[in-house]
Predict the structure.
Amino acid sequence: MAVYTDITDEELETLLADFDLGAPVSFKGIAEGVENSNFLLETESGRFILTVYEKRVRSEDLPFFLGLMRWLAEHDYACATPVADRAGEISKSVRGKPCALVSFLPGLSVRRPGVAHCREAGRGLAELHRAADGFPMSRDNDLGRAAWAPMFARLKGQAEELKPGLADVIDADLAYLAANWPTDLPSGIVHADYFPDNVFFHGEAFAGTIDFYFACTDAFAYDIAVALNAWCFEADGSFNITAARAMLAGYEAVRPLSDAERAAIPVLAHGAALRFFLTRLHDWRATPAGALVKPKDPLEYERKLAVHRASKDLVLFGTARA
Amino acid sequence: MAVYTDITDEELETLLADFDLGAPVSFKGIAEGVENSNFLLETESGRFILTVYEKRVRSEDLPFFLGLMRWLAEHDYACATPVADRAGEISKSVRGKPCALVSFLPGLSVRRPGVAHCREAGRGLAELHRAADGFPMSRDNDLGRAAWAPMFARLKGQAEELKPGLADVIDADLAYLAANWPTDLPSGIVHADYFPDNVFFHGEAFAGTIDFYFACTDAFAYDIAVALNAWCFEADGSFNITAARAMLAGYEAVRPLSDAERAAIPVLAHGAALRFFLTRLHDWRATPAGALVKPKDPLEYERKLAVHRASKDLVLFGTARA
């Protein structure tokens, strides 16, 4: 949760002057999104989210992110849609930072997803992969496998501080992943941050996805691996295989996986756990004291890594076909 | 702005089970209120604010605060109204903390109020004083004049750290205020925290007041003094006498001030500046690093104190009658 940027009523008025949305009725900073500042805006014509893009989002990537959201909404995927101003622009700026107004998406995220939520989330992810098919832009995954070793080279000291001996263990992860990383899996647009905070429900029914600011071009199965890590571990660090199977079943009801994709999921999940461990390790130290953001514990992902290290035999997810 | 407490979807469901508001549709932590955690909740039957009371609000004071809000709303004052559950309860609890659901109040707060806003804010404050007339409960101002000397006794070291020599200057303020503090002014329910963040507008028209969690029984003119400090200083520390006169004119259009009240405003404003200086000085050091809250700068109020020290002759506010 984060509200880094403060928007005054005057700045809001200046921004809204470019749109045909009527006068503002209410405007509140909301604790949603880790990377950006988000505001819930109500105007005479409806409700919107104003997202102000901070540090990690590069303005040159915005046409991809916003174009994707618009494409998905036009292809009946439940997600927020960017709103164009009178000149047709969706990429705007406020207080010298890039920003965009998107439609308000109702729904609640769940803190501790149950098996039914995991099934629905799997279905929602497959629908995203399907709806994005044909989207004409692409974007490399700059937090993909090739990025991890150079990232970790700068974080070794912090890893040792976190847990003595950890640097060698992570080096072994990197070597294992480099040797075993699958290539040639079916690829396309992936969300790459499909965590419970970013998925909305009505009751137990999937209601939509938010926060496409890590979306990129990568293997679909990598997106599933990120989601399995995020949704199917219990608070005590154990992996809930029933939830994982439900998520895969929900996914496959829309887009069946190939044998190669199924077989790759354990190593992809090992890599995906490393990716989130590394960025959390970085943020853990980089977050200034007093910032309006609570850095996420990197150790949560080190515990998930340990589970993956212990189960390289593909049994873990029940994903190996007989 | 603060979101201290995290509410899970399950905790929300448990809370809502006591109410007849239908299923939740959306739920977001909002950056509003310094002392409490606030969430914007939409259910099938409308929009509400869930306030979870943290540290400074004592649960034994809640019947006063919530009762006052209900009284004011019933007397046509524009403010959020507490919502009773099926058993008629408005004081609830979540995650072991007291909480309440109140109706959503639309409107925008202004960052840099203009003269027109000050006039309207004055009118809104007088309407509050009038609407509260007859409210059967009372509550001592535990941050009133009698509290300042004991508070400062514990903060002297911090004042010196902030600005060497400041402790003696504040001691002189305390002596001056003790000798000159008015008694027998017309009293009743005051808001006691009537800052621009707590007042909503539609355009330049007053739209309502929020955050009654410092409300207490005190001189009406003290409430005006708090508001003059909060609304009528420019960012450069200068006092905008045009804005102050507009605020008083707006107030008097609803509730004319007596000569004694007018004459007392400068010393009340001096004291009100000290009250906010002291609590900010306390919070400045007490806020843990990494908390989801940005402590307010005590020096802003020390600069206001300096203005009051220099203008004890009643000329400052143009409030002395010829």
